[in-house]
Amino acid sequence: VITDGLIVEHSRGFTSHVYQSIAWGTRSLGAIVSGIIGGWLASRWHPQDVFRLTALLPLIVMTVAFRIIEPKRESGPFHTVMEPFKRCVQILSLHNLRWFMMLLVIMTISSTFGVPFFFHMKEKLGFSETFLGLLASLGWFGAIMGSFIYGKWLKKIPPKNILRVAIFVNSLSMLSTIFIFNQHSALGLVLIGGVMACVTILPIMSVSASISH
Predict the structure, then answer these.
(1) 51 or 72, higher pLDDT
(2) Whole-angstrom Cα distance, residue 36 to residue 190?
(3) Is the predicted pLDDT of residue 53 greater than 70, yes or no?
């Protein structure tokens, strides 16, 4: 949330797509590394050792966070305790923001269906931990491609037009997971799904950053 807040704070109407592309591209890069290493560790280490290693990683994030320079505030942004709640009510009353929130809620609900599909690949298809980690990394590599595609070619197209096409194609991509029956089909469909998922979310986040201003 803090990272997204920083992106929104520095974004403007003509730069929001650039910041969002960079942010999601770098997130995807980190997810690729974690997917590959995580799958490898899961097949070779005890779970307790993996958890101990994971517990140390936020310290690295904290070290980077200290390097972020922000201007100091002389006073807080709110004068009373109730002012933030009143401000939230005013913001939630905006027509466009209500629809953006509904869109994000529906997209989040749809993404939770990946959990049973993970167990389907693990138990029914017999994919190993290492291969599942590779699949996760491949999906995030597709997200990097989606970030590049959006930042390079789709930024000038009106977001509403991109969303209509991207959501439709992303729905087809999600439905295509029923055709994953072996490792080769999984590799291709997960890569395509990663591209389309990122192309779907980036217009939403970019316009949300613009609306926030």
Answers:
(1) 51
(2) 15
(3) yes
